[in-house]
Amino acid sequence: MQIPLQITFHGIPHSDAVEAKIREKAGKLDRFHSHIMGCRVAVEAEHHHHHQGNQYHIRIDITTPRKELVISREHHDKKAHEDIYVAIRDAFNAATRQLEDYARIQQGKVKTHDLQSTGTVSRMLPEKDHGFIEAEDGHEIYFHRNSVTGSGFDALQVGDEIRYVEETDDLGPQASIVYP
Q1: Domain with 53 in it: what CATH number?
Q2: Distances (CA, A) of 152 to 17, 47, 94
Q3: In terms of domains, do 148 and 62 share one?
Q4: Strand extents, DSSP E, 20-171
Q5: Residue 70 bridge partners (DSSP)
Q6: Which of 112, 65, 85 is nearest to 22 (CA)?
Q7: 25 with 81, same domain?
Q8: Cα–Cα distances in Å, from 34 out to 12, 63, 71?
Q9: Contact 141, 132 (CB under 8 A)
Q10: Who's near 138: CB < 8 A, 6+ residues apart?
């Protein structure tokens, strides 16, 4: 990485052990894409759950010469993310998948137009920075604000037809790129 790794903590005190785990995981990202310029990691504790322990949210921003990849998923329903190390592992696993996919596209091993599907925006949750797409076959796909290209997330409305690139992880289908 050309720019040193940046780690920030929100809602929790700094932890040398957590920082060491993040540095270890971030150090391995170069294996999956050789031109990573920088990486920023934000660790956040969500303290509004009274019926269960704190959920940890990990956001990773990876900068490459042509694209910035953002790994940021809400895990409110995933009890495992009450363990900060599980949340870190899952976030870096998602980052690895996105880097591998991006590297394949850059190397021409994947035709991007073959990956695109069409659907309709079915729900928008702007206060949570995400929404959902209804695919042509009727299943629902999550998308995050940072996945939207062009005129952006704020211009989308329920009922808009869009194109998207879908991927599936352990939490289900999500759109990694949304074209309004």
Answers
A1: 3.30.160.100
A2: 37, 30, 23
A3: no
A4: 38-46, 55-63, 68-72, 116-125, 130-135, 140-144, 161-169
A5: 61
A6: 85
A7: yes
A8: 32, 12, 18
A9: yes
A10: none
Tell me the whole-structure pTM to 2 decimals.
0.57
User: Could you tell me if 88 and 127 lie in one domain?
Assistant: no
Residue 55 has pLDDT above 90, yes or no: no
DSSP secondary structure letter of residue 51: S
Q: What is the pLDDT of residue 120?
A: 94
The candidate with the shortest Cα–Cα distance to 161, out of 134, 131, 125, 130, is: 134
Does residue 120 share a domain with residue 102? Answer: no
Q: Supply the range of the domain harboring residue 68.
A: 6-106
Percent of the chain with pLDDT over 70: 85
Residues ≥6 apart with Cβ < 8 Å to 45: 10, 11, 12, 54, 55, 56, 57
| Helices and strands (DSSP H and E) totals, the chain | 3, 9
Angle of helix 84-106 versus helix 16-27 axis, rounded to 10: 20
Per the CB < 8 A criterion, the answer to whether 93 and 71 are in contact is no
Regarding whether 85 and 54 lie in a shared domain, the answer is: yes
Residue 165 in any domain: the answer is yes
Q: Say how far apart CA 67 and CA 163 lie, in whole Å.
A: 19
